[in-house]
Amino acid sequence: MSDIEFRNKIVYFFLAASLSILIPAPGRFAYGLVLLLVFNFQIICGLLFSRLINFLNLNALKNALMAMEIVAVTIFCKQILVLICPIMALTLGFVMYLPVLSAAIIDFLYKETERSMKKDICQKMILSGSFSLLALLFFLIRDVFGYGTITMIAYKRIAVVTLPVNTSTISASSFLATIPGALLFLSLAFALYVMVRNKYTVLKRGEES
Hints:
The protein is mainly alpha-helical. The protein has 9 helices and 2 strands. The longest helix is centred in the middle third of the chain and has 31 residues, at about 115-145. The protein is flat and about 60 Å long. The mean pLDDT is about 80.
């Protein structure tokens, strides 16, 4: 895979994962943390299960088995969340299942690779981890500037730390807490990334020529 193809794949993965996690979820850090933990757990379990299918030579049934596995893992995570924090499980609802249906998960788990299991899992978890860090920052910004709080998951409740900020400032930036605000913020972030990447590519080609 060329350097350009790899960078394009990163953009594709980040965009697919963002649309399934960042936009539909409530703009609270606690919800983002839970969704990203589930997302990474799904990827790890899916990669291991995919290798198990290949080892057992059940490739003819791979699509059906993988679909059953990722849904089962999500249901398991949802039930754990119900026990820990029922209100969060109720609020998230179907949102927890969206990453399972996203192109990010599908591309990760269904695409065949010739790499060893260790290298394959390491490369994909590095990509997933990088996205998770950026996504947590995204949720934190929405929480702080949209609500003036920082939220964390706690047993049977959501812990809320209210920040000492000016209420008029929060009122002006509360648009970030909405879905249109999240879409706008995400669009600006991707536009900035593409602009910087294109500028870097032009400079690199200029140095090579």
